[in-house]
């Protein structure tokens, strides 16, 4: 507990400095109000004593909304590894302007990293906290089990999982990289209207659409009221992206997805 | 014996500039091919969106072929590069959810390669016959409700 309080103090100091020096108009972070933690826009140093770091709450989508609401201001953001990667992917898709964001990088604790089974529980620049090693998706027991099963068993597993879906679109709405104005999943051509659960293809289409952008923040799974293990699929897709194209989403704004470049620019490896 | 009698339903997406002409050549040359495939002509193999393939496979199609120009010969310069990469990744996803990767075939057929088209189709139909019918659509919806227009 002591360590976390120190970290909160450090973040408060950095955020306070940014605000007082007028480097940023406000800082986006988490605020604890009578034990309830939620996103908050710290526009003055008076709010900072309420700043919180845990539990984890993805902030990338809030940043996009705030940046569009304050088109001229710079914002500070308290980012975890996943938030930063999500913002980088959003910058590639012209959803946020990186010039207008100032990151306060927080490395996740070991517990947090384990809870999320996170691959990279730290941002590029760590301002607060100690870097802990991430977990490879293949360390995950569920992923291991699934890979070892045969095709038919996997199909049965996924159909069972997807049969719980109530098509609330929570996974899509929570996803920081699902940014289309017109969503394919709302078109009856691809997803039949008026039936629950939706066909397995609903999830397959969604997974593939974000396959080259997914940063593994786990917001989809956290949002799912039916507890469908969506991150397993995404984890495997990220592994495959690494294997086939040596590409990881959310690293640099200048890196382009291999799916939109030519074979000379990013060849398929290992085939 | 039973599997031999199964006649699969196969969709072949052929690009307008090479593969469709290749398929045409195979037809005009009266090459023998199994009659189990349906050709859908698209302007480029890159036009084949992943959701098309997912939808096809989840609504009763047993196999999907995507045929384009040879790498370097694309009418749109790099369309087939994108198709190759995208579909390679799609295949990995299909395998992970339990759809056999052999049900999706990506290959290149030029306008003069009628016999290559014949070989590909024959081989693919044979392979899909071995795999048997695609069984993903078996799920009955639990709740159906009326959607307002």
List strands and helices in order, with pairings.
The complex is a heterodimer of chains A (271) and B (149).
Chain A: H1 2-20, E1 26-33, E2 36-42, E3 51-52, H2 60-69, E4 75-79, H3 81-92, E5 101-105, H4 110-116, H5 141-148, H6 151-162, H7 170-174, E6 195-196, H8 200-209, H9 219-223, H10 230-245
Parallel strand pairs in A: 1-4, 4-5
Antiparallel strand pairs in A: 1-2, 1-3
Helix pairs in contact in A: 2-3
Chain B: H1 2-5, E1 10-15, H2 19-28, E2 37-42, H3 50-58, E3 63-68, H4 79-96, E4 104-108, H5 114-131, E5 143-144
Helix pairs in contact in B: 2-5
Strand order of the largest sheet of chain B: 2-1-3-4
Distance between the termini of chain A: 49 Å
Low confidence ranges of chain B: none
Domain tally of chain B: 1
Tell me the span between the first and last alpha carbons of chain B: 48 Å
Write up what this structure looks like.
Chain A has 271 residues and is of the alpha/beta class. Chain A has ten helices and six strands. In chain A, strands 1, 2, 3, 4 and 5 form a five-stranded mixed beta sheet that branches. In chain A, 41% of the residues are buried. With 149 residues, chain B is of the alpha/beta class. In chain B, helix 2 packs across helix 5. The longest helix of chain B is centred in the middle third of the chain and has 18 residues. Chain B is globular, with a radius of gyration of 16 Å. Chain B starts with a helix and ends in a 5-residue tail after the last strand. The model of chain B has no long low-confidence stretch (mean pLDDT 89). At the A-B interface, helix 6, strand 6, helix 8 and helix 10 of A face helix 3, helix 4 and strand 5 of B. Strand 6 of chain A pairs antiparallel with strand 5 of chain B, so a sheet runs across the interface.
């Amino acid at each position: 507990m002591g360590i976390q309080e120190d970290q909160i103090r450090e973040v408060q100091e950095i955020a306070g400095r940014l605000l007082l020096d007028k480097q940023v108009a406000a800082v986006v972070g988490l605020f604890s109000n009578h034990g309830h933690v939620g996103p908050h826009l710290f526009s003055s140093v008076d709010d900072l004593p309420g700043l919180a770091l845990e539990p984890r709450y993805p902030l990338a989508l809030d940043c996009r909304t705030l940046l569009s609401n304050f088109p001229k201001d710079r914002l500070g953001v308290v980012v975890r590894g996943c938030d930063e990667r999500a913002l980088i992917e959003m910058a590639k898709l012209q959803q946020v302007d990186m010039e207008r964001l100032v990151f306060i990088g927080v490395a996740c604790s070991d517990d947090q990293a384990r809870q999320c089974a996170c691959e990279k529980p730290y941002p590029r620049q760590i301002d607060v906290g100690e870097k802990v090693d991430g977990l490879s998706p293949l360390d995950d027991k569920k992923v291991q089990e699934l890979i070892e099963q045969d095709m038919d068993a996997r199909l049965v597993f996924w159909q069972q999982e997807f049969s719980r879906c109530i098509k609330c679109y929570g996974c899509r709405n929570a996803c920081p990289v699902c940014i289309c104005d017109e969503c394919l999943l709302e078109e009856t051509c691809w997803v039949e209207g008026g039936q629950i659960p939706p066909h397995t293809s609903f999830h397959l289409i969604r997974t593939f659409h974000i396959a080259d952008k997914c940063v593994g923040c786990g917001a989809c799974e956290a949002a799912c009221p039916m507890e469908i293990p969506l991150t397993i699929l995404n984890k495997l897709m990220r592994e495959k992206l690494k294997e086939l194209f040596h590409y990881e989403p959310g690293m640099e704004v200048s890196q382009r997805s291999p799916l939109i470049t030519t074979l000379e620019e990013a060849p398929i490896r290992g085939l | 014996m039973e599997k031999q009698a199964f006649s699969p339903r196969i969709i072949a997406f052929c690009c307008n500039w090479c593969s469709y002409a290749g398929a045409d050549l195979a037809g005009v040359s009266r090459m023998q091919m199994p009659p189990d495939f349906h050709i859908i002509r698209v302007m480029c193999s890159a036009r084949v969106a992943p959701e098309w393939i997912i939808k096809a496979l989840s609504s009763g199609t047993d196999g999907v072929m995507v045929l384009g120009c040879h790498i370097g010969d694309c009418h749109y310069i790099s369309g087939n590069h994108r198709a190759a990469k995208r579909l390679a990744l799609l295949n990995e996803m299909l395998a992970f959810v339990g759809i056999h990767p052999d049900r999706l075939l990506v290959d290149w057929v030029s306008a003069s390669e009628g016999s290559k088209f014949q070989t590909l189709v024959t081989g693919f139909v044979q392979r899909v016959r071995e795999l048997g019918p695609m069984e993903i659509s078996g799920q009955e919806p639990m709740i159906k409700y009326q959607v307002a227009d």
